[in-house]
Amino acid sequence: MEFYGAVEAGGTKIVAAVGRAGEEPRALERIPTTDPGETLDRIIGFFRARASEGLPIRALGVGCFGPVDLDPASPRWGFITSTPKLKWQGTDVAGTLGRALGVPVGFDTDVNAAALAEYRLGAAIGRDPAVYLTVGTGIGGGAVVDGRILHGASHPEMGHMLMARREDDGFPGFCPFHGSCWEGLASGPAIEARWGRRGEDLPPDHPAWDLEAWYLAQGVLNLLMALSPRAVILGGGISQVPGLIDRVRSTAASLCAAYLDRPQTPEEWSDMIRAPGLKIPGLDGAFLLAEEAAGVSVS
Ligand code: ZN
């Protein structure tokens, strides 16, 4: 049996694994995201050690925090570009790993990889278009359209959609580029900056969650209007707050004002806005990217 390498590279930690998409990994390691040189060395070391133990990889897939260059014609394909994590700006992630390990590399954003995995293996099977969102230290989103990850001039940056602020919310937003974009108003750091406490320290009945649901619902509704998806997967740490996803559904229904034919009923809203079906969708997505890079057709 052949194995693949997967790297889910987030802004605070990286998960590296050997295995196959949709299966329990044969080996997995969590690596803190520090300097690019040190972090990439540890990833390379992990795969070399597994290879010496009898788990060589045929190809590597990387789902990476961004922004990244995904243009196959660009000399900077596989690079991280204008990230606020300054040390990582201009880092050649795909090339460094591919040259060191001597395997083909599939590369995309972490949320695009997660969207592909939820569409192929998780909670969005048969739902095309499908959108995957993660709400945590930032807000990110990816889409699968006609069975493929949606790319464009660069890649979607759903977390930086501009939002209407709720009338009773005086928080200016914290995004260094836009202030009150979606991420600036509704990510984990926004919750902490607005309420002076981390999200995990706020009880489920705290007014923070009503406001959070309002912003998440507004962004999800914008995506329903823009892409007409058949499922929106709401992932990430914040999304796991008890009862939050139900509040997002009911608030989105109320903001939508029955404009869309579908979803209309509470059941249709529950069917549209879904919890993830996979434990680490970005990692399964990275395995799928690896299989694509190896030329293996995946169904
Ligand atoms: Zn922004």
> What is the strand tally?
10
**List of distinct ligands in this structure:** zinc ion
Number of domains: 2
Q: Mean pLDDT, rounded to whole units?
A: 96
Rounded to the nearest angstrom, the radius of gyration is 19 Å
Structural class: alpha/beta
Question: Span from first to last CA?
Answer: 18 Å
Name the beta content range.
15-25%
And the CATH topology of the largest domain? Answer: Nucleotidyltransferase, domain 5
Widest beta sheet: strand line-up: 3-2-1-4-5
Order of helices and strands: EEEHEHEHEEEHHHEHHEH
| Cα shape | globular
Structure description:
- The protein is of the alpha/beta class and 299 residues long.
- The protein folds into two domains: 3-112 and 279-293, 2-Layer Sandwich (Nucleotidyltransferase, domain 5), CATH 3.30.420; 124-274, ATPase, nucleotide binding domain (Nucleotidyltransferase, domain 5, 2-Layer Sandwich), CATH 3.30.420.
- It has nine helices and ten strands.
- It has helices at residues 36-52, 93-101, 110-121, 182-186, 188-195, 207-227, 244-256, 266-272, 281-293; strands at 3-9, 13-19, 27-32, 57-64, 105-109, 130-135, 139-145, 148-149, 231-235, 273-274.
- The protein has a five-stranded mixed beta sheet with strand order 3-2-1-4-5.
- Strand 7 (139-145) and strand 8 form a beta hairpin.
- Helix 1 (36-52) packs parallel to helix 2 (93-101), helix 3 (110-121) packs across helix 9 and helix 6 (207-227) packs across helix 7.
- The longest helix is centred in the last third of the chain and has 21 residues, at 207-227.
- It starts with a strand and ends in a 6-residue tail after the last helix.
- Residues 160, 175, 177-178, 181, 183-184 line the site of zinc ion.
- The site of zinc ion (ZN) has 7 residues, from helix 4.
